[in-house]
Write a structure and sequence with these properties.
Helix content: 25-40%
Shape: globular
Keywords: Acyltransferase, Transferase
Strand content: 15-25%
Structural class: alpha+beta
Order of helices and strands: EEHHHEEEHEH
InterPro entries: Acyl_CoA_acyltransferase
Organism: Streptomyces aureus
Protein name: GNAT family N-acetyltransferase
EC number: 2.3.-.-
Number of helices: 5
Number of strands: 6
Length: 165
């Protein structure tokens, strides 16, 4: 049994209100934009995601990022998990990402997390994304009990939960 209904169609373009930004599924072709975004914010991203995902390590190469984005693109096509890039209007920069995943831990039917590049921390754009994501998930995704990691629950609390079956 899939974690999403068979007829679910994932959104392909999501405007971030009050900004010139939008979300869309990430692709392997985004590597040239994604790599500098991730590595430019690597220290902070490792503090957030490192303990749970061992990502992004400080020696991650462009090729490793490309392979990771190809994996994400295939997972999106198969509806196994979703990685949305936060992009400027012209799609010349990745400014963050939103992850929508099947539950790894008990207590939810979808696990959502997101980040912005260091330059946007504390900005109106970050606040707009923080407001959008839970509303978007509630409105457009078929979850009854989604969990926003690092928001509804700390990463440490999440790591201490039993694995989902």
């Amino acid at each position: 049994m899939s974690w999403l209904p068979d007829d679910f169609v994932h959104p392909v373009h999501v405007p971030v209100p009050h900004t010139a930004l939008h979300l869309r599924p990430i692709r392997e072709a985004d590597t040239a934009l994604d790599y500098p975004a991730v590595m430019g914010s690597q220290k902070r991203l490792w503090e957030i995601f490192g303990p749970a995902w061992a990502w992004p390590n400080e020696t991650m190469t462009y090729e490793e990022d490309r392979i990771d984005l190809l994996r994400h693109e295939k997972e999106i096509a198969a509806h196994q998990s979703f990685n949305y890039a936060l992009l400027d209007e012209e799609e010349t920069a990745v400014l963050g990402c939103v992850y929508i995943d099947p539950p790894e831990r008990t207590g939810s039917d979808g696990e959502i997390s997101w980040w912005v590049v260091d330059d946007l921390v504390g900005s109106e754009a970050e606040r707009a994304l923080d407001a959008l994501v839970p509303e978007w998930i509630a409105a457009d995704w078929p979850f009854r009990t989604p969990r926003c990691l690092g928001r509804d629950i700390t990463w440490q609390e999440w790591l201490s939960l039993p694995p989902a079956t």
